[in-house]
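Hi R.,

Here's the chain you asked about this morning:
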Amino acid sequence: MTRTDDLLRNCLAPAKLNLFLHITGRRPDGYHSLQTVFQLLDWGDYLHFTRRDDGVIARKTDVPSVPEADDLVVRAARLLQTHTGTTFGVDIEIDKRLPMGAGLGGGSSDAATTLLALNRLWSVDLSREILQNLGLQLGADVPFFVFGQNAFAEGVGEALQAVNLPRRFFLVVNPAVHVPTAAIFSEKILTRDTKVAKIIDLLAQQRLDTNWPDSFGRNDMQAVVAGKYAEVAQVIEWFSNLAPARMTGSGASVFAAFFSQAEAEIAQAKLPASWKSVVTASLDSHPLFAFAS
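And here is the predicted structure, written out as tokens:
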């Protein structure tokens, strides 16, 4: 079995963190203009792909509360099949490990991983740029995961510039709540006028501050979510006595960064027993990065 075969049979669809998340305005089409830094994690769902020669696209595992036709993985496969005209199909198995509504990008990462995997499995050999454009039809975060590198993002999250981030370990705590992204974006009290930052501002702070990028900016959604969900507010308050922490995306997960796995695990051991958490390392690139160029 080649390394490619092994990757296709056991694909990590990595989670992401938003190290900061600024909402800088609202566009005429109703979407919000954002700025963020995306950090890939060595943790996520696992997808397994087996090529079919009959053109059928089939999800072989059940995902609770997600009908097969609505699953972003299935939609991504069908989109790529339609765009390329390939006669191949695929069986897809999903080992779902990331909680939904957690701000970790699980569904978007699954969709992007499907596009990258099938780009190789079906030998359609589309460029990364084309795959990113297809991914944007599925969701605003999908292009980032296809891009496959830690990135400074603007627009709705599709304008991407790679950034080098230090290797670190993250303690990620997921409160037992599902936060609907659309509902948070529609909140009247959500601020939408954060000053636009330039990537040179981030890099300048990186040179001056060993805690960068954790010391840069904020998550504009955090106060809104914490005000609506006491569980999120409790996690943020708990971290206040231990380490700087932020919510990722529109919530509900909260994270803190450490420079060693041991430090992160010591903090994890202090968590209330009922809280779900994971210690995970940062990633520099998507495991399937080489499947597009």
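One quick note: The chain has a mean pLDDT of 90.

Cheers,
M.
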